[in-house]
Amino acid sequence: MTLIIKEATVHESDLIYQIMLASFQEYSGKLTPPSGALHETVEHTMRTFEVGGGAVLAWEEGNAVGSARYKLVDDYMYIGRVSVLPEYRGRGICKALLRRVESIAQQQGIAESRVEVRLSIPENIAMYQKFKYEVVEQKFYPEGTDSWYVMRKILSDAMAE
Asked: Which InterPro entries is this protein grouped with (predicted)?
């Protein structure tokens, strides 16, 4: 199977949104507060492009199987809503999506990328740590029900792994 990661366009916002929705569905009713991803609309995805951000799509055998959105925040590239359809997980798609966005960041002279991950999803924390992301901050929801890590990766050596 050939995996292709391409930069997406605003015209693919609905596709990006549908992949994200299907990928985050497993968290429905399991997180407090609920994942904001499940309350977004396609307009949220479109807005990413409107504010100068973008997205990448993962394609396998002509099927869109993953996506990630990104935008420049201060002096780093924020990568969010990283999504891989459940039936395609465990094939390196998430890593390929991240590497593509990290490459885009480096091409723009940005030396750091960041993601945010809930502590209640430890498998995602472990995955990002495997991809050389490190915890730089812990934030808390106002309700006190959960918290999340801000994780960063310094990109100067990111492509060497």
From this structure: Acyl_CoA_acyltransferase, Bact_Acetyltransf, GNAT_dom
pTM summary value: 0.92
* Helix spans in the chain (H): 13-24, 42-50, 93-107, 122-130
Domains contained in the chain, number: 1
Instruction: Give me the domain span that covers residue 136.
Output: 3-160
d(Cα 158, Cα 155) in Å, to the nearest integer? 4
Give how far Cα 78 sits from Cα of 4, 110, 127, Å.
22, 11, 17
CA distance 53 to 60: 24
Residues in Cβ contact with 16 at an 8 Å cutoff, skipping those fewer than 6 apart = 8, 45, 55, 57, 67, 69
Torsion, Cα of 36, 102, 66, 44 (10° steps): 40
